[in-house]
Amino acid sequence: MEGYKIPGLPKIIPVVKHILKKPKIGSIKYSRWTPQEITTLLAAYKEHGKNWNLISQQYLPDRPPSTIRRKYIHLEKIKARPTSEYNTWTSKDDETLRMATNEYGVGKWSEIRKKFFSDRSSAQVQERWKVLSKTKFGKWSSEEDKKLQELAKQYKEDYRVISEILKRPVHSVYVRYRRLQTPKWTIEELDKLRDLLKEYGKNWERIEQMMPERNGWEIKKAADTLVCVNPFVNRRMWSKTEKGLIKEGVTMYGNNWVKVSQVVGTRSHKQCQRYWQIEQGKEKIRKTDSDHILS
Known about the structure:
The protein is mainly alpha-helical. The chain has helices at residues 35-48, 52-58, 65-79, 91-104, 109-116, 122-133, 142-154, 159-166, 170-181, 187-200, 204-210, 216-225, 240-253, 257-264, 269-294; strands at 3-5, 12-14. Keywords: DNA-binding, Nucleus, Transcription, Transcription regulation.
C-alpha cells in the first residue's frame, strides 16, 4: 500500500487516490423538459436566484447551466401569456399594471415591479404588458389623428384614458395632439422669432412674453427644427473644421444628435443628423464601387 510515515508515529498513513471522472459528452441532457424538472427549476430559483451553476450541480445535474438559464427565461415569458398554465395574473393585477404603466411610463418595468409586483420578475411584467396593451409605435394614420382629436374633446384631454383607447404610449399621444393643435407658422412669425433669438438668445421666458400667441413648447420646437429661424447656426456648406468636429461628436456620443451639435457648435441637431446620414450613404456607395473594381 502506498503511503507516508509521519516522524514519531509507527504507522504508515495510507494515501487514498480519488479519481475524478469527467462526464461523458453523451450524458448531458438535451431532451424535452419534464414537468418534474420544471417544478425543480422553479423551486431552486426561488431558493438560490440566478446561481445557475449551483442549480445545475445540486438540482439538475443532467442539465448544463446555460440550458437552465435559457429555460428559466422562456418560462418567465410564457407565464405572462393569457393561455399559459402558469398564468396567475388576475383582472385586478392587470388593472394595477395599466395604472402603473400610465404613471411610470412604458419600459420602466424594474420600477413597476419593485413598487407593485415584488413577487414577479421584470420580464413577467414586461411580457404581461405586451399582451394587455399591444402598444402601437411608428407613424400615425389620418384615421388615428381624427380619432385622437375626437377623444381629446370627449375626455377633456385626459391623455391617460386616450392612451388606453388608442393603444399608444401616453407621451406619444400628448406630443401628437399638441402637434395637431399647433397652427402653422406664418412668415411674419418666423421673422419675428429670428429677431427675438438674435436679441435674447435662448431666454425662452422672455421670447414667450414677446410672442403671447405662441407657447414655450412651440417656440422651442421651431427654434430647434427650423434652420431658417435660428440665427446661430451655419446654413452654408460644411467646412473642414465642422466635418472634423462632427466625427469627434459621433465618436463621443453616437446618435445623440443634441450632444453632437453641441460639439460642432455651429449646426443644429437636425443639421448634424441629416449631414451624417447623407455621408454614411455616400460611404456605402464608395465601398460598393470599390468592391466591384477589385472583383
